[in-house]
Amino acid sequence: xxxxxxxxxxxxxxxxxxxxxxxxxxxxxxxxxxxxxxxxxxxxxxxxxxxxxxxxxxxxxxxxxxxxxxxxxxxxxxxxxxxxxxxxxxxxxxxxxxxxxxxxxxxxxxxxxxxxxxxxxxxxxxxxxxxxxxxxxxxxxxxxxxxxxxxxxxxxxxxxxxxxxxxxxxxxxxxxxxxxxxxxxxxxxxxxxxxxxxxxxxxxxxxxxxxxxxxxxxxxxxxxxxxxxxxxxxxxxxxxx
Length: 241
Prior knowledge:
Blueprint: H1 2-11, H2 38-48, H3 55-66, H4 84-94, E1 97-102, E2 124-127, H5 148-169, H6 176-189, H7 196-202, H8 209-213, E3 218-219, E4 222-223, H9 225-238
Antiparallel strand pairs: 1-2, 3-4
C-alpha cells in the first residue's frame, strides 16, 4: 500500500519529455463507482495498475484505511443468575438423560426409554430437560447423543430466558432462594407470566406462593408424582431464608 501511494506521488510529476495525448481518451476504469465500498474501490484500482481518476480522494481514503478504527462494544447485559441451590434443584428434578426421550412416557425400571421416532405422548427431551422450545439451538432428534458436560452447557443457556422472565415479571424483592425456586418453576412449566401465583406475589402476598405452586402438578389431565415432588422441592427452597 505504501509503495503504491509513493508511486502515485512520483508518477504525478511532470517529465522533461512530454507524452503526446492519446488520439482518444480511454474510458476511466479507476473512477469510484456509485455505492462501491472504499475497500473494493482501492483493491480494484491497485489491481488495475492505473492511476486513480481522483488521486486526492484515493489518498485520503487510503490514509483512513490504514488508521485503526474503534468499534464500540454493545452494552453489557446484567442478568441475575440462579443460585447453586436452585440449579441443584433443577438438575435433580430434571435428571440428566444423554439421549432423546419422551418426557411423558413412564420410565422403565427407573430409566427413560430412548425415543427413536415413534409417536410421542409428550415432548422429545434430552439432557437436563432440554426441548426444541428452549433457548439453546440443539434440536432433539432420534439417534443423537450428548455428554454430561454438554448437557450442563445446554442447561445454562436454556435457563437464561427463565432467569430473565422471573426478573422481568416479579415486581417485589426476592432473596436468592426465592428467585431460584421461581426459575425452576418457570423452567419446568413456562407458566409464571399467566399464573395467579404471580398476581398474588406482586400484590405482596409471599405466603400464597406455596399453595399456588401445589396447583401445578398435572400433565395430560393426570396428577404426576414427579410434578408433586418438584413443587415440594421448590416450596422448600422458597421457604429457606
